[in-house]
Design brief:
two-stranded antiparallel ribbon; single chain; 1% strand; mainly alpha
């Protein structure tokens, strides 16, 4: 701003002050701001006490193995033979699939495997190897590893079918199935079940070189392959078909401003596609880009001029323009 412009602005302010005929009163902005902040902090504390977030206990592998041993063992068998969701997920856990993709875009494949997980070794073999003082279990693991891949598959397939009619023993520490050719798989699974029920598997799945054990990827993926997390999500209205992206634990319907994202998961082809995530991201990317470029899109940018709703909103201002006050009024 030039020197002459500043002088003109000060003159205009002085003219406004001289023409003001109303009352004056002192105003302490710092005081008002302090009071406002104090009120907001007080309300936050009171509302937090009265309406705090739900303190739900976390799901653990131990709790899962104790409450639904059949589901736990069934999931463990899929980890052993690689047929679980994690086993066939692809990057960033393994190379068994290309991951989410659309047209020529393969972002998961391009980023590669950053968190490698061998489901058979990480969820079954290695934890069983950590169990000391059980030679029968160690012999069963050795026998399974020594068998040809075709025979391993025959054992796990037969045992998976038998698990549909399995019955837990007294206390639920083991599962009994009808006689069949399952090889060493039943011994391995019952040992893993007992290990999990005792809490050992939870610790085995978060072992790392870090001082603080904060990486819960493996136990979470293990439980996600089973039914424990999906069942809990259903009760909290968090599943995809329940508009779960916009919900939160203990709150329904949740954050309604997220409806545009979760809406696409409810309709085809998104609701039936294995690549729904990247498809929804692409749609939202296009819509967001179109919203940003509204000032540059012919026709759309002219809507305010063609439909002058702004004149209705600011009607007092435009009424004054149409009928300016007379001089001296």
């Amino acid at each position: 701003m030039s020197r002459e412009s500043r002088k003109l602005a000060r003159k205009r302010e002085n003219d406004y002050a001289r023409n003001w005929k109303g009352p004056y009163r002192s105003y302490d902005l710092i005081k008002e701001a302090t009071i406002a902040i104090g009120v907001m902090v007080g309300l936050a504390v009171v509302l937090t006490i009265l309406f705090s977030s739900p303190d739900d206990k976390p799901s653990t592998v131990q709790q899962w193995a104790r409450s639904t041993p059949a589901d736990f063992v069934t999931t463990a068998v899929t980890e052993l033979d690689g047929s679980s969701g994690t086993g066939g997920y692809g990057p960033p856990y393994n190379h068994n699939a290309d991951g989410q993709h659309i047209a020529f875009l393969y972002p998961q494949k391009w980023l590669g495997v950053s968190h490698p997980i061998d489901t058979a070794a990480d969820y079954v073999i290695n934890p069983l190897r950590e169990i000391n003082g059980e030679p029968v279990t160690q012999a069963a693991v050795s026998a399974y590893l020594a068998a040809p891949a075709k025979l391993q598959t025959a054992w796990t397939d037969a045992y998976t079918k038998a698990l549909a009619n399995a019955t837990p023993t007294a206390g639920g520490s083991a599962l009994t199935v009808k006689p069949g050719n399952y090889g060493p798989v039943p011994i391995m699974m019952n040992s893993l079940l007992q290990y999990a029920q005792g809490g050992g598997l939870d610790g085995a799945l978060v072992n790392s070189t870090q001082f603080y054990q904060t990486d819960y990827t493996k136990p979470l993926l293990f439980m996600a392959d089973g039914g424990v997390l999906s069942d809990r999500a259903q009760t909290q209205h968090l599943l995809g078909e329940q508009w779960g992206m916009m919900n939160e634990t203990g709150s329904f319907p949740g954050q309604t401003w997220l409806w545009l994202y979760t809406f696409w998961y409810q309709i085809k082809p998104f609701s039936t596609s294995d690549n729904a995530d990247i498809l929804v991201m692409a749609v939202m990317g296009v819509l967001s880009l179109a919203f940003i470029l509204i000032p540059l899109i012919p026709g759309i940018r002219d809507i305010p001029r063609r439909i002058p709703l702004y004149k209705l909103i600011w009607r007092d201002y435009y009424r004054g323009l149409a009928d300016p006050p007379k001089a001296g009024a």
